[in-house]
From TrEMBL:
PROSITE patterns to which the protein is assigned, alphabetical: IG_LIKE
Transmembrane segments: none
InterPro entries for the chain: Ig-like_dom, Ig-like_dom_sf, Ig-like_fold, Ig_Fc_receptor, Ig_sub, Ig_sub2
Ranges where the Ig-like domain occurs: 5-96, 193-280, 296-368
Keyword Disulfide bond: yes
PANTHER family listed in its UniProt record: FC RECEPTOR-LIKE PROTEIN 3, IMMUNOGLOBULIN FC RECEPTOR
Protein name listed in UniProt: Ig-like domain-containing protein
Keywords from the named record: Disulfide bond, Signal
Amino acid sequence: LSPLPLTAKATDNAGAAGRATVSFSPNWASAFTSESVTLTCNVASSAQGDPPYSWYKDGVQMKIRQQNYTIVSAQVSDSGEYQCKSHSSDRSEAVTLIISHDYLSLKVPPFVFEGDNLQVSCAGYPGYKAESAKLYKGDQLIGSSPSGNFHIGRVTMATSGPYTCYRYVWHHSMYHYKESSVYISVKELFSKPEISVNSGSLSQINEGDPIMFKCDTKLSPHRETTELQFAFYRNGHNVQGFSLSNQYGVPSAQLEDSGYYTCEIRAQYGSVNKKTQKLAGVRVRLEPAGGQVIAGEKLEILCSVEKEMGLLRYSWCKQPTRICVTKEAAALEQRFVVESVSEDYGGEYQCIVTKAATGDSMRSTNISISVRGTDLVHQVQPN
């Protein structure tokens, strides 16, 4: 049976380690002196109820052994980087808590992820009267708010940047015009998807073989309950719509299942979408140009890519038989020469370029070659 030229990126994407995360309540990265803040050590369900818990401030272990740690009346000295772990989990990423004794504080969540519905607060010191607030991103005015609360909405990576709020605060029988600045860094909700075929195996697939494609990503442990949906495509055409399954199976592979497979992941009701990375295109140049060849003449095919990618496997393949001539070279182009074109050489061809190290492949558009006659035509058709 003929091998099927299926193309999918192989990957070994193991699940994330059981790492704890720290969350704040209220969910702000800053608090005023005298305010209360509760820090919680969140661990995977398999590690819940697995004391003792360990807390760290600025890298130094604290005496706290509970899952929740409450700072009842915060002091400036409580500012720092906090981490935690349970008996069986890995230590969390450090989370910065800032305790302020200023008139004004621009409060933002400790973590902001793409797709989050973001709100921030330009808060005056508790008990002090404050007038309407203005919020800027860089030099651009976002808006004003009598309460000091601002709804930014669904965020993307482009939301990242420096933010500053301005507000008059009443104290000691006079108004003080104050400002507070923070840098909001939007984090990736989940990584770019990678698609693998048959558990990452790059072994040859023949007609009749079962195929299982898997779309993998890494979801941030801070958003591990986020629902992800997956879709699969062959040569850009949808073969499985969005669903909770990250797998697409073909029980018995046929020639029509050949192609370049990609996947797409979406989350937060479609507010975050990511697709497998598109590979650079493959170009084909024919000599003589136009693909008009007389039987017995010499034909040269030049396949090229746009950038260096290490050792490459160039294949010049006739469709739909998938009969290929293959050469390997660490070069941006490869030449195939047919010294004497036969009468049955005409048909549809593609140049397929595969990275030897990873199995990633890319292909040209279809190239029509006609043999004999003056009505020979060279056509470039969509994939």
